[in-house]
Write a structure and sequence with these properties.
The chain is of the alpha+beta class. It contains 14 helices and 43 strands. Among the domains are: 4-25 and 617-877, Alpha/Beta hydrolase fold, catalytic domain (Rossmann fold, 3-Layer(aba) Sandwich), CATH 3.40.50.1820; 100-186 and 205-228; 510-608, TolB, C-terminal domain (Neuraminidase). An 8-stranded mixed β-sheet has the order 36-37-39-38-40-41-42-43, sandwiched between helices.
């Protein structure tokens, strides 16, 4: 499940954190919603796929500056401190068809024009509402005039083509007549007189409504698609020894060596390729083409298929096909994960899974599209699975070897079975993987020797209470010496790294303490230390820690109070890199010295310089103890001039659900509603706005992430009620004017709280909330809401909000994208029906995006979205001083 932060992070909007002003900010100086949520995002995408060369000297990453399309390849030299841009549209133009580059350029201009027009329209629409003289039809008028010219040009071209076709037909007809006359001995007929130009008819122009229809079709045809813009490289891989890399760009592979000014092309295809890495001797590269693994040498011509497809006798029941291949770093061994079609008892293909219809109302007649949906009472259709271990052929001259039997299998069927990627030791001596059987609540870890015929051994088994989030993040990794397998477990109530000795199979905890540390960034080359991201000491931040594997001693490497993401360590153990920042300093890719002695380097600059002009308030962190003594984290925007004795209106933003490591109170998250809109309401209207992480969130340990199990929404409602009680004295708010807002799980949580505690909050806004867990995707609901092993009936119906809706007493705004494939729009329709049926017509209203999906993004844009929120809160909570 996603929540509002997902769409907000994609927009990458943030306000620079500045010290609070000493006097109330004049309304005229507060940026408008159109400025805060402008059409063009204020940031480019964050750097991604950062990776060090084997020597540790170079750091490569994919990123492009603000305003540029795609993500280009950059390489930073840690020794000289210089950064080289390896690719750009200009560089890659040497390998592209001119037509493609022209299209990229044309579509980029189209995007810029669309940004500018949308921004101008939103500003003009608000000016019109203020009574200013504005022509709101100017953009349509201009577009229709352009369309008229295009239609006229097309008509002239078509008529010219018709005239040419007619002339050619007349000439052919005359030639045939001449030939016929000759054969008949008759005189040749005279050519037909040239047709005079047809009398020009007074064509009536298309009516305005017809032109609007034509314009709608044109806009649909010209709508920007991801493939319309220059993408930049999609992936790269460093050599195993040399300081060089190969990257993949639009179905081609390119080689770049340190010191080169430009890349060299290797392979050009029209297929989707994916790099696996260099060969063991750096003499070539391995890459996938669908399920095939191909090996290409740099010096010798030709391509070799490395993972020969499986061969099965005709009478064999399960005919597996390769779906994934992993190759050991030394290039000698590979694992093949294969799956077979699932069949019924009479040997027929198993029926496809459930599909639900989503209605589209944009055309004259409504149409429906189907999306996949698997709910808790659906029978599973897990395909049979087999794992094979093979030696990698050393060359094209190797004779094919007999196919070995699988080393591990799972029969599939109506079971919930998950398996991790296969991890290989660096020397290829061992491999490891983990499995999770949800129905049995069974977690297992396997280690196998590099042997085609040997079965892997189970080295760890946990049944029952293993923490629902563990299986989603557990990624086994061997230390560089191959002697230890490190993986994330939730043995102590926190997701942290543990070690399994490959020889003795002994299990040992590597990190201890009440904090989460579930993202391993790498190891030192001597295997004595690991690098891990953890929120030790600050649950709203993630820092890079260097952990001594023997003693457990911890050293923090990054700056305190920053959230580090997507971290990676160099193999020489000297450097780590991560996207890092906070509310005061926007997140950027940073290079950190692993010994903590050298000042960090910032390698990217992703923001539009205009961002500095948007200055509002800075949030304050706070926490409180709920009725059970749990520490609940939050942040608050207080308006300038705030005093504890005030009685201001207030808004609380909540998400409340577990999802990997996501939560709201993160020091680098500029979430649209909680952060940006919260600042706006505080600065312009004197509101106190709060964002809070009640029990239910991830990254606070298992006590929080398991809180929803078989009591969905109740722990959060308790924590929100406790917050509301302390807000008047602590935050200077009016207890009668506190609003509640949330999206996705937060939309569910807002409704649950408003229905079960109807007098705590004065009004609520619930966005895209799953009101009926029986209809939500079972990958989430079955591991966070309640056990769903009974396939005969929708047992999660007990958590439906529909029977609770009659408890509503205060105004509620329901918001949803009508084409949401995640939380179905029907959830909002059904709870709205219940509310109306129970006499709540005067309390409930709907705000819908006809084209919107889970994070909206259709006709309703962020500025308009939050204008609706602004009006709702002012109508129901008033202003400061009221």
């Amino acid at each position: 499940m996603t929540f509002a932060a997902v769409g907000s992070l994609a927009l990458a909007l943030a306000l620079s954190a500045t010290p609070p002003l000493q006097a109330q900010t004049p309304a005229a100086t507060v940026p408008t919603l159109e400025q805060i949520f402008r059409a063009e995002p204020y940031r480019s995408e964050a750097a991604k796929e950062a990776a060090f060369s084997r020597s540790g000297r170079y750091l490569a990453y994919l990123w492009s500056p603000f305003g540029e399309p795609g993500t280009d390849l950059w390489v930073h030299d840690t020794r000289t401190g210089k950064t080289q841009r390896v690719t750009s549209p200009q560089v890659m133009a040497a390998f592209e068809a001119p037509e493609d580059m022209e299209r990229f350029d044309r579509k980029l201009k189209q995007r810029q024009t669309e940004y500018a027009e949308r921004q101008a329209r939103e500003v003009a629409q608000q000016a019109y509402l203020r009574g200013e003289k504005v022509d709101l039809s100017q953009w349509e008028t201009a577009a229709i005039e352009t369309l008229k010219k295009e239609l006229a040009e097309k008509k002239a071209k078509d008529e010219a083509q018709k005239a040419a076709d007619k002339a050619e037909a007349d000439a052919e007809k005359h030639a045939a007549a001449v030939l016929a006359a000759k054969r008949a001995g008759k005189p040749a007929p005279a050519p037909a007189a040239a047709a005079s130009a047809p009398e020009k008819k007074d064509d009536k122009d298309k009516e305005l409504w017809e032109l609007r229809d034509e314009l709608k079709k044109k806009l649909a045809r010209d709508k920007l698609k991801p493939a319309d813009l220059y993408p930049g490289p999609a992936q790269f891989a460093w050599a195993r020894k040399a300081d060089e890399l190969v990257f993949q760009y639009r179905g081609g592979l390119y080689r770049w060596k340190a010191g080169d000014k430009a890349p060299t092309p290797l392979v050009a295809t029209q297929r989707e390729l994916r790099l696996m890495g260099y060969t063991a001797d750096d003499g070539g590269v391995l890459y996938t083409d669908e399920t095939r693994v191909l090996r290409m040498g740099f010096k010798q011509p030709g391509v070799q298929v490395v993972n020969r497809e499986l061969i099965h006798p005709d009478d064999e029941q399960k005919k597996y096909r390769i779906s994934e291949t992993a190759i050991s770093e030394d290039g000698r061994w590979m694992s093949l994960l294969a799956r077979a079609p699932l069949k019924t008892a009479d040997d027929k293909p198993a029926p496809s899974g459930r599909q639900v219809e989503i209605m589209n109302y944009s055309e004259r007649w409504a149409t429906a599209k189907k999306v996949n949906r698997e709910v808790s009472d659906d029978k599973r259709t897990q395909p049979p699975l087999a794992l094979y271990v093979r030696q990698v052929p050393s060359g094209a001259s190797d004779a094919p070897r007999k196919q070995p039997a699988p080393v591990f299998t799972n029969a599939g069927g109506d079971v919930w079975f998950e398996m991790s990627d296969v991890a290989w030791a660096r020397d290829g001596s061992h491999y490891a993987f983990t499995t999770w059987e949800r129905d049995k609540e069974l977690l297992r870890v396997y280690i196998g020797a590099a042997d085609e015929g040997a079965k892997p051994g189970m080295v760890l088994e946990r049944r029952g209470d293993v923490g629902h989030e563990v299986v989603n993040v557990i990624k086994p990794r061997f230390t560089p010496d191959g002697k230890t397998l490190v993986l994330i477990l939730d043995e102590s109530g926190w997701r942290q790294p543990w070690a399994i000795d490959v020889t003795s199979k002994a299990l040992r905890q590597l990190v201890k303490g009440d904090f989460e540390a579930h993202q391993i960034a790498g190891f030192t080359p001597d295997s004595k230390a690991l690098f891990v991201l953890a929120n030790q000491g600050d649950s709203a931040a993630m820092n890079l820690l260097r952990v001594d594997i023997a003693s457990g001693t911890i050293q923090a490497l990054g700056a305190a109070g920053e959230f580090h993401r997507a971290a990676v360590a160099s193999e020489d153990g000297r450097w780590v890199a991560a996207n890092a920042g906070n509310w005061a300093q926007r997140p950027e890719l940073k290079l950190l010295a692993a010994d903590g002695k050298e000042t960090s380097r910032t390698l990217t600059d992703s923001s539009d310089k205009a961002w500095a002009e948007l200055k509002l308030l800075q949030p304050e962190r706070f926490n409180y103890a709920n009725r059970h003594g749990d520490r609940i984290e939050g942040y608050v925007f207080k308006p300038t001039g705030w005093q504890a004795s005030d009685k201001r209106p207030a808004i609380v933003y909540v998400y409340g659900g577990p999802l990997n490591d996501r939560h709201i109170v993160e020091v680098d998250s500029f979430q649209n509603t909680a952060y940006l809109f919260g600042q706006y309401m505080a600065a312009k209207y004197g509101y106190v706005t709060v964002a809070v992480d009640p029990r239910g969130h991830s990254n606070y340990g298992r006590k929080f992430s398991d809180a929803n199990w078989e009591r969905a929404g109740e722990p959060q409602a308790e924590d929100l009620e406790d917050l509301a009680k302390l807000m008047p004295a602590r935050f200077g708010v009016d207890a009668r004017r506190i609003g509640l807002n949330g999206w996705s799980f937060g939309g569910f949580q807002t409704q649950y709280t408003m229905y079960t505690r109807p007098d705590v909050f004065a009004a609520g806004i619930a966005g895209a909330g799953p009101t009926e867990w029986e209809n939500y995707n079972s990958w989430y609901s079955g591991r966070t809401i309640g056990k769903a092993t009974d396939r005969t009936k929708p047992v999660l119906r007990k958590y439906s909000l529909l029977p609770l809706a009659k408890g509503l007493r205060k105004p509620l705004l329901l918001v949803h994208g009508m084409q949401d494939p995640n939380v179905l729009y029907q959830d909002t329709v059904n709870v709205y029906r219940e509310l109306v049926d129970s006499g709540k017509e005067s309390l409930v209203e709907l705000f819908l995006d006809p084209d919107g999906v889970h994070a909206m993004g259709g006709v309703v844009k962020p500025a308009g979205w939050h204008r609706k929120y602004e009006a709702f809160w002012l109508r129901n909570l008033g202003r400061a001083g009221d």
